[in-house]
Write a structure and sequence with these properties.
This is histidine kinase. Helix content is 13%, strand content 31%. The protein is α+β, with helices and mostly antiparallel strands. The chain has a four-stranded antiparallel beta sheet. A hairpin with an 8-residue loop joins strand 3 and strand 4.
């Protein structure tokens, strides 16, 4: 099950994306957001690092929030700007 929730905090939009899976392997935690980090047999391990790069380009931030033993949660933080500020 995947859940998506959001919350406004001042001029920041927080988007919480969570699941009810096993969480992330503890051994991978220090490098989880770096390219080519994976615990799977299939895949390159670049998905989260691409997401981090995209969030940085949008002046946002990607954070991991999890119990680390079960359930994963990714928090996307977007800084909101006024239309005049974007010019």
């Amino acid at each position: 099950v995947i859940t998506v929730n959001w919350q406004m905090q001042g001029k920041t939009l927080n988007v919480f994306i969570g699941d009810n899976g096993p969480g992330w392997p503890e051994a991978l935690l220090p490098s989880l957001l770096k390219p080519f980090t994976t615990s799977k047999e299939v895949g390159l391990g670049i998905g989260l690092s691409i997401c981090v790069s995209l969030m940085e380009q949008m002046k946002g931030e990607l954070r991991l929030a999890s119990t680390m033993t079960r359930n994963a949660c990714v928090v996307l933080q977007f800084r909101l700007t006024d239309v005049e500020d974007a010019k």
